[in-house]
Design goal:
about 500 residues; alpha+beta; two-stranded antiparallel sheet; about 15% strand; globular
């Protein structure tokens, strides 16, 4: 058992209001620079919708992530192989282009002051930052905000492909029109394709916390990482010729502060904690069928309260402070204890360490007669009447396994039924407890979920000690435990003690 610690993230989608405060905070701190204008390390998408860059989920076009060979029971990069790696350094047809993002632009603000006097109000014309010529703005990172019913954006969402024509038609009826927000940052995956694809070895996972970074001195701008990342969260700086990505604000983490997007989040949807995982299981965890991927990833995550895990973690140089954070981690509670948080598009097999609690409001917001019902008899059938079909949510969060999403939804609904019953007593007590049993939860667990979801303190949402980077570099693990972080390059400065 090779125990590693990983900083992990939970986004609770029922709490996201789509205000983009997180995106603005990140832009102001990290990407307000020449060449980075189109970079959005944090962006918020409307679902159903095509996202940013446009249709990033279309791996038939972009060839991101790993592909699974069921016969060989092995995975390989989609974006390249040994035969074409060298050729794709010079031309890669799977790279997103400016049309998939948007052409960086500014405005001719001087026209507002230098325009001659006249009857018309002067305007600032948008001009390209690349050519300097006037351009017509046709897309952007939040171009399809709230346009859930738009035939241009929502109906081109790839996750709708598995729905029947009847389900698609119902989804876009004006009475059923619905949407939810999907904030996205780098997943800091445990099995990242960007690291595996980089020909210059510039991308690495930090050994002490799992954060994926790009060494700007080593980066040669080949952009293989951009093609390899299925989430398209690596960007090419067209001024410096280097690739850049979300660094999870590690300078803030090292001083005990949450990342900028977490700190600024209005809806308080973001949670940060430590997960312990068995690096020995990483090679096999993603080599299973799609339907088994969620459980396979859960099996690789270790119980931080297990004495054997604690002992192995200490031998591997994980500090007692980190172990304490893992034992009180909201990430562990949501992912393993409560099984409410799921990875985004786990079928890409990168083992993302960013998890989402699926949105409940679109599920409970519609019934047959158009009213919002609270009925013990409707507990299961309300999932069938959901505005957003469970099949759609399963396409996003469980590689199509509807049973996994249904289990999450039932527990979330049980929490809501139980807390409502405590206040208004609109159901019989026997019915409420039957709902809890059918949702495989208890009153104690419901109270814990409610506490963490509705009224958590700052220190309950963000459970992480100062990373003490200089101590991590000097620490503690055996040579056997530090052979390259599950096959991937450690930080060049991270030298295990012999």
């Amino acid at each position: 058992m090779d125990v590693r610690a990983h900083v992990s993230v939970i986004f609770h989608l029922d709490k996201c209001i789509g205000c983009h405060t997180c995106s603005v905070a990140c832009k102001n701190v990290w990407t307000d620079r020449p060449g980075a204008e189109y970079m959005w390390w944090n962006n918020v998408e409307t679902k159903p919708g095509t996202g940013y860059p446009t249709r990033w989920e279309d791996q038939e076009k972009f060839n991101g992530g790993w592909k699974y060979d069921a016969e060989k029971k092995d995975i390989a990069l989609r974006c390249q192989n040994k035969a074409d790696t060298f050729l794709k350094l010079f031309y890669n047809p799977n790279q997103p282009n400016l049309q998939d993002y948007y052409e960086p632009f500014t405005y001719k603000y001087e026209d507002l002051f230098t325009a001659p006097a006249g009857d018309d109000q002067p305007t600032a014309v948008p001009v390209s930052l690349i050519t300097g010529e006037p351009i017509e703005i046709k897309s952007g990172p939040n171009w399809d905000d709230d346009l859930s019913g738009s035939p241009i954006y929502a109906e081109n969402d790839l996750n709708l492909d598995k729905l029947t024509e009847e389900e698609r038609a119902q989804l876009f009826e004006i009475e059923r029109l619905t949407m939810f927000y999907l904030p996205r940052i780098c997943n800091h995956c445990a099995n990242p394709t960007c690291v595996a694809a980089c020909p210059s070895g510039a991308i690495y996972k930090r050994g002490e916390d799992g954060i994926v970074l790009i060494n700007q001195e080593k980066c040669r701008g080949w952009r293989a990482c951009v093609a390899a990342c299925p989430y398209k969260k690596i960007y090419f700086n067209w001024k410096t010729g280097k690739s850049e990505k979300c660094i999870l604000c590690f300078p803030r983490l090292e001083t005990g502060q949450p990342p900028a997007c977490f700190h600024s989040c209005v809806g308080r949807i973001r949670y940060l904690g430590v997960l312990l995982y068995d690096a020995d299981k990483i090679p096999s965890a993603m080599k299973v069928s799609d339907r088994a991927l969620v459980d396979s990833q859960r099996d690789a995550i270790l119980d931080p309260h297990d004495p054997e895990v604690v002992a192995a973690a200490l031998r591997n140089g994980i500090s007692e402070e980190f172990l304490d954070s893992a034992q009180n981690s909201p990430a562990y509670k949501y992912v393993i204890e409560w099984k409410l948080a799921l990875p985004l598009h786990i079928e890409y097999r990168t083992m993302p360490m960013l998890f989402y609690v699926p949105p409940l409001l679109p599920v409970m917001g519609k019934s047959a007669n158009g009213t919002y019902e609270h009925s013990a008899d409707k507990f299961f059938t309300s999932l069938e009447d959901a505005r957003i079909p469970v099949k759609y949510l399963a396409s996003l969060f469980s590689a199509g396994n509807e049973q996994v999403v249904e289990a999450v939804m039932r527990k979330l609904m049980a929490v809501r039924y139980y807390k409502r019953w405590q206040s208004v007593r609109d159901l019989a007590e026997n019915d409420v407890h039957r709902i809890l049993r059918e949702a495989k939860t208890t009153p104690e667990e419901v109270e814990a979920i409610y506490q963490m979801t509705a009224i958590p303190t700052h220190y309950q949402r963000f459970v992480l000690p100062p990373l003490q980077r200089e101590e991590a570099i000097e620490s503690t693990c055996s040579p056997e435990a530090c052979k390259g972080c599950s096959g991937f390059s450690l930080d060049p400065a991270f030298t295990p003690r012999a």
